[in-house]
Structures are given as C-alpha cells and as structure tokens.
C-alpha cells in the first residue's frame, strides 16, 4: 500500500505541530522518521495511520482517501504500534495479540494461526498464557508489536518500537521490520537511534520543529551538517561490514551569552 501525504499541517491551539509536510511511503521499503523530541514524528505517524485529524493537507492510500476505502477495510490494511507500551487490560498475552484480528472477521482457525505467527515473529510465544500485566516494559512492547503483526495488513506503522528493548531485541525487531518490508509491506518506523536508522532503513525523513528538513536515502539525509542542525550534536560515523554507524558524540556548544552589567 502506497501512502502519500501532501501539505500536512496540524495545529493544537495556538501551536502548529506540523507545517505543510509532504511524504510518501512505498510498498517494499522501510521508511524511518527521525528528529529530536517535539519534532512532530508521532503526530505525523498518527496522521499517516488515519488516527489524527489534520488542519490542512491530504493523505491517500493507493491513491484513495480513507473515506473511499472505509474504516473496516482500512483497519485490515493498516497496523499501528503506539510508543507507550502500556497494556490496560487484565488479559493473557495471546488474547492481547488476538485483538489485532478484530477487523477481519475470519474463522477462529485462521485467527489462531495468524496470532501464532505474530507471537513467533515477535519472540513472545513463551508468554502466550501469562498475564500481560506481569511482563516487563520491553516484553509488553513486543506483545503490542505482535498484536500489530497479527493484523497481517499491507502497511505497518510503528512509533519507537525499540525504545524499551535490550540490544538483542532491538536488533531482532529492526530485522523483523526489514523482513516485513522485503515481503512487500509498507513499513514506517519512528526512531531515535541513528545507527539503527542508518543500518536498516531504505529511506529516512528528518523532521525538526514540525517541518520536513529532508527526505531520501540515508546517505542523502543523514549528513553530519543536517544531524547537527536537527539534534544539536556532532556525530562520529563509520562503516563495519559495509553498513554505516552513526554515534552522537558531543553536544554543540551553546551560543555565547553576553555577561550582565
């Protein structure tokens, strides 16, 4: 599913959160949304997932507006993973994952098979019968990722899916996201880890203060100058086994403040 957004603006009271953003996500690619805290990444992801109203602009799914597709059909096509990692329901893990099947209305056998596939992919099959509330924050995030995978939609939108995870599962989840893209899904991921973005994303979009600074390949967008301008840090970068790594190294010096009289 191609997702195309044009002229997206979002206002909250007197504050403009997004300023005329244009972005396109294509099937078969992993698109990373980057930028500092407050850049508008989560708001943009929610707009693309049809969960956030806009002040201006349009979002098309394979060239059609959401109204032309219908809520249920869109729910079968779009899977969304929020960043909170909170599970509010006193349910067993497998029942939380099964919530991803609600838009489908398929047979119990088909739903069970999809849930099993999702739990295996997210590495949580061993948790199936455990109460979701008994899990750690990182384990809960993987349960919610499995719920999104259980949708088996055509697009997967994930907001900071690795933020609460240990290094092993950070790599596991990013490898999974890349496999989903290679299988033909449109995958959009909000990330803060610059190295994970550089290694796994096909394209990235860099946001700052609600504006799109740049979008394109990692080489085109993640330059030292742009990263310094967006994040206020100097970076160190290099390659290992043909893959790029980027490390925030020092903060940019604060501007000189004249002494008081």
From TrEMBL:
Keywords: ATP-binding, Nucleotide-binding, Translocase, Transport. SUPFAM superfamilies: P-loop containing nucleoside triphosphate hydrolases. Residues 3-234 form the ABC transporter domain. Pfam families: ABC_tran. Part of the ABC transporter complex HmuTUV involved in hemin import. Responsible for energy coupling to the transport system. This is Iron complex transport system ATP-binding protein. InterPro entries: AAA+_ATPase, ABC_transporter-like_ATP-bd, ABC_transporter-like_CS, P-loop_NTPase. Belongs to the ABC transporter superfamily. It comes from the Bacteria. The keyword Repressor does not apply. One of its GO terms (molecular function) is ATP binding. It comes from Xanthobacter agilis. Gene3D superfamilies: P-loop containing nucleotide triphosphate hydrolases. The lineage of its organism: Bacteria, Pseudomonadati, Pseudomonadota, Alphaproteobacteria, Hyphomicrobiales.
């Amino acid at each position: 599913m191609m997702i195309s957004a044009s002229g997206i603006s979002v206002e909250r009271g007197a504050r403009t959160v997004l300023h005329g953003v244009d972005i396109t996500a294509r099937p078969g690619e992993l698109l990373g949304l980057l930028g500092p805290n407050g850049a508008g990444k989560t708001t943009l992801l929610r707009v693309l997932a049809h969960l956030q109203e806009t002040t201006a602009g349009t979002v098309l799914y394979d060239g059609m507006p959401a109204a032309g597709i219908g809520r249920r059909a869109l729910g079968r096509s779009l899977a969304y993973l929020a960043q909170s990692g909170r599970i509010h329901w006193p349910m067993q893990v497998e029942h939380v994952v099964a919530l991803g099947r609600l838009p489908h209305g398929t047979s119990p056998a088909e739903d069970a098979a999809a849930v099993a596939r999702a739990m295996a992919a997210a590495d949580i099959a061993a948790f199936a019968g455990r109460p979701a509330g008994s899990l750690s924050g990182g384990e809960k995030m993987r349960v919610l990722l499995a719920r999104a995978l259980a949708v088996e939609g055509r697009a997967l939108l994930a907001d900071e899916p690795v933020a609460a995870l240990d290094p092993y599962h950070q790599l596991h989840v990013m490898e999974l996201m890349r496999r989903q893209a290679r299988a033909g899904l449109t995958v959009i991921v909000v990330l803060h880890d610059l190295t994970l973005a550089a290694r796994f994303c096909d394209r990235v979009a860099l946001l700052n203060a609600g504006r799109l600074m740049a979008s394109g390949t990692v080489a085109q967008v993640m330059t030292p100058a742009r990263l310094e301008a967006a994040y206020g840090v100097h970076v160190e970068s290099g390659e290992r086994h043909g893959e790029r790594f980027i490390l925030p190294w020092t903060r940019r010096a604060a501007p000189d403040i004249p002494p008081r009289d």
